[in-house]
Structure formats: C-alpha cells, structure tokens
Amino acid sequence: MSTTLIGLLIVLAVVLVLLFWIIGMYNGLVRLRNEVKNAWAQIDVQLKRRHDLIPNLVETVKGYAGHERGTLDAVVQARTKAVGAQGVASRAQAEGELSQALGRLMMLVEAYPDLKANQNFLALQEELTSTENKIGFSRQFYNDTVMRYNTQIQSFPPNIIAGMFGFGESEFFELQDAAQREAPQVKF
Amino acid sequence: MWDAIASNQRRSWVLICTMGIVLILLGAVIGGAIGAYVGAPTHRHLVAFQPPGDASWTRAQTGVYFGIAAATLLWLILWATAVGAGDSILLGAAHAREIQKEDLPQLWNVVEEMTIAAGLPKMPRVFIIDDSSLNAFAVGRRPDKAAVAVTAGLLKRLSRDELQGVIAHELGHVRNLDVKFMTLASVMLGAIVLISQGFLRALYYGGGRRRSSREGGQAALILLVVAIVVAIVAPFAAQLLYFACSRRREYLADASSALFTRYPAGLASALEQISGQAAPEAGASKVVAPLCIVNPLQEAAAFSLFSTHPPTEQRIRVLRGMAGAGLAAYEAAFQQTRGKSCLGPRTLQDSTDVPIRAAAPAPAGREQAVARARAVGELLDKVLPFAVISCPCGVRLKLPPDSKRASITCPRCGREHEVPRAAGGSPVTDAGPPGPSPAAEPLQYHRKGTGWESFQCPCGGTVQLSPSFSAPEAVCPKCGQVIRVL
Which of A18, B115, B161, B415 has the fewest beta carbons closer than 10 A? Predict the structure, then answer.
C-alpha cells in the first residue's frame, strides 16, 4: 500500500516538474516572440519618421535647387512607394530604394553652398542622418532578435512546443547592405 | 552577447559573495578580539569559576556574533543609501544638469541611436556637466532607469562618430548591468574599508588605555593578532578583486561599443583625444571614477593592480586592431595585443561576424567644430542659469542661480555692482546675452595711452578706463552700450 503511494507520489512529482518545465519553455518562446514584435515596431517608428521628414527636406532643397527635378521626383516617388509597401520583404526593398534616392539627393546638395549653410536644412540633415542611423541600428537589433528567436524554435526540445502552439519563424529585414551603407558612386 | 551578460552576472555574484564572506570574517574576527577584551571586567564575577582560558573564549564567541551583526548592519545601511539615492548622489556630485532634445539635438540623437542599438527598454536621461575636461559616465542600476552624463569639453571636442563610440561604451555598461554590480561591490568595499580602518585606528589611539593581554586571556591575544592581520589584508584583497573586475568590465564595454556602433575606430579615436588631455578632472570624485569612460583621477601613465580602468593606450590598440565589429573580432584583437583571453568562450559562443561600417561622411573642418563649440556654449548658458553682470572694465561676472548676495565686487577694478533680482528672488542677467550689440555700427574708442582715460558715450554717459584695462570692449554704465576699445 505504502509503496504504491510512494510510487504514485514520485510519478506525480515527475509530471509536475515536466509541466513546469514545459510552461517555462512556452513562456520563454512567448517572451522572445514579443521581443521580435517589439523590435519590429521600433523599425516601423523610424521608417515612419523618415517618411515624415522627406516632404520637408524636398521643400527646403527646392528653394535652392528647384531645377534638379529628376532627383527630387525620384525621392518623392520612392517615398510614396515605401509608404504603400506591405510585408517585410517588399518593405525592405522599397526602403532600400528610398535610401538610395536620398543618398543621391544628399550628393547633389554638395554643389549648393547656400543650401548647406541654411539652418533649417542643417537641422533637417542632422535629423535625417540620425533617422538613417536609427533605422540601421533598429534593423541590426531586430535581426539579432529574430536570429535568437528562430534558433530557439528550431532547436530540439522547444521545437515540439513551437510546433504545438504555432510559433512560426520570423523574417529577417535585409536592406541591400552595400547600397545602403556606402555613399552612391557618381559617374561622369 | 546575451551570454556575456549572463556570465557577467554569474561572475558578479561570485565576487559579491566573496566580498560578503570577507566582510563577515572581518566582523567576526574583530568582534571576537574586542569581545575578549571588553567582556573582561563586567563578566569577571560570572566567569571567575571557569578556567581562565575558557572564559576568554566564551567572551570572544559572544563578540563574534556581535561583530557579524554589526558588520551586516553597516553594510545594510550603506546599501540602502546607495539604492535609495545612489543615482542622484552621483549626478549631484558631478554637478550634472539634465537636457532635452531641443537643447542639443545631436547628443540626444546619438543617445537615442545607441539606445536602439543596445536594445535598452527605455532611453536614458541625458545630462551634461559644465567641465572642460573630456569624460562621460552612466548611472542607473536598472536598464530602464539609466542616465548618461557627458562633459561640455567632450561635446566640444569630439566628432559625431567619436561621440557615438563614447555613448555606446556607457550604454554598454548599462546594458551589461555593470552599474548595478559596481554599486553593490563598491558598497561592500566601502564597508570593509570602513570597518578595518575603524578597528586599526581605535587600536592605535586606544593603545595606551588597554588592559594587559594577560587580563584578556589567551583568546584575546590570539584573536587580536588575527584581527590585526585580517584588518590589514582584507581591504587590499577586496580592492584587488574589485579593481580586477572593474577593468574586465571596461574591456567588455569597449567590445559592446564596437558591436553597437559597428565602428571601433570611433571609440578608439575618442579615447586618443581623451587621453591627450593633461590634468586630472577637478570636480571628479572617487565615487564616480569607476563609472567614467576613463579614470578622471589618474595621471595618464600610472597603472597598477589598483586601477579601475585598464591603460587607455592598450584599449586603443585593441580597438584599432579589430578586423570586424563583433565580439569575436574584439577577442582576437585582444589576444594579439595582450597575449591572453578577455571575454571567455561562453561570451563568444553565439557571436557572429559583423563587418565594420564605413565612417560617417565627416562634415569635419574648422567651421563645424566652431559651430559645435558655440552650440554647446549657448546650451550651457541656457541650462545652467547663471546671471551675467558686465562690469564696465570688461569683466563678465557670472553668478550662480542660488546666490543670495545683494551686491558683488568686480575682482579686477573693484567696482560694486548691485545684483538685479527677478520676482522669484534669483539673480537675472542685466546686460542681456553677450553677442552682437544692437547698434548697427559698432562704436569705437582709440586709447591714447595707458593711464586713466575717460570718454563720452553717444547717450551722454561717461565711460572711464583704468590703467589696468585690457578688455577689447567697454560698457557704458548709463545705457549699457558696448564700445570697442582699440
């Protein structure tokens, strides 16, 4: 009688420990998934900020270099496309193009000393540089977080729970790195 | 990277526990020694029937308990103070002022960028310190309640990339939970030093009135010798431990900075500039030192086991030697420079190769530097609400906002100036901000010689120049008009 009781208690204890272990693992996955969401929200904030800055920038540049229609229009179009883009991959694509268009605009500005001395433009430039940096850093952090999350749901014990509760893999946010980081080449 | 924090945490707890044991041991030994002595007269009638040797041991035992309790109590008090008011004490000791985004957008942006890169839950508060030296530190035991402070000198001298490196280093400290640990450890260290010093001093000064050791018994003699040895050794041991850990954390924060910015050259070049400065910081205190980017108290060359920071020159060499921006690259560069490991395998196991980014298109040049210096200067005048009184002899007298004086004497010419008061009682600026005078055509006066001279201002007031006058401008005492003196 007492041996059965002890056996039962041991089984119960094992089941309890297992249960707690599973709960811990599940919570860990939820936490990671929320971190990924959070990191994505951060990128989103910075991208929106950049979209908001561009009309102002275009207006300021127009005042000094209104005849450079081609470059200015390219920026405006790239912005419109980026605002409308859906999904991680297509947004990354559109934002990459916007970065390139902006890079060309900034190169153009070099030829207008009056514009470069404009206080309003200088403030906008600092804001834009910082926003570009923030996009870069939040992307960096987002990708790191996605990597940790994906690794977790692919490795052995957690992948069972991930499969059971529908934790899917997250997408990386990749801009064309070389194009975004290097200043655009000017060809004559 | 996340493993780095975890392993850091583990190491921290080992250190804290070691220091805790040292503290309790110290309390026990000193308590025992004191108990063996102090217990003697009051308990003599009680212990008279026991063998003399045993009696002193019994008293010593009571002393041990009291000693442990006293040491723990002291530590708890210090700890509660540090937890309750630590950040404000540190920021107050450094005379730091909080700023907002509008005050200095670039600094704010850089902090925001690094907050994102470090993945901190909340942006730290930003403070600046009115000091021409180059330094920065971070406080905040929890990453969501952090603050970062930089000196005005740093803001004036460093480029954007360099500033980013410094801020990333500081936020690296916050993210790696160094501040929390350093507070804990320094409180322990403080308690240990306090107890040892107190005991040794009491022994030294109280030596004349001490009873002979025969009266205290055998235990007292033994415990006394042990207590003296422990009281001398313990602070040294604790300091060695503490400083070794502090230096290790500096390296890890450097590695974090490179990882966050993806640009190790930024921090390296900032450190080069910072180590180029000559004198130790005037306003720096020992309390803030382990948190600063470089040790503000130390002469450049001095380095020993009792340094909170590794030698700056070596940190620069490691950063310059990095082939990538990741932790593995830092470890490789460290091994090449120092010939030993720094971060440990657990930290590196999930680190990936990170390429170094290109330098920011440098808007460098003199004009940029001058513009930055001016912006910082204007900010300081705004954030630190000094009242400025322009003396006719050309001296600008700056009054702190909490000044209660009714008048002030010019140190050069000896004139008395009444301090104008605002409604709230704080001094207000009388002559407006210094800068271009309202007159379209700047007024000029050519000096005839070097003696006393006087001339008429257009408003009719008389401006007098003393023999020692050497400023480029004089101010009319009647209308406040600035007149150039040639």
Answer: A18
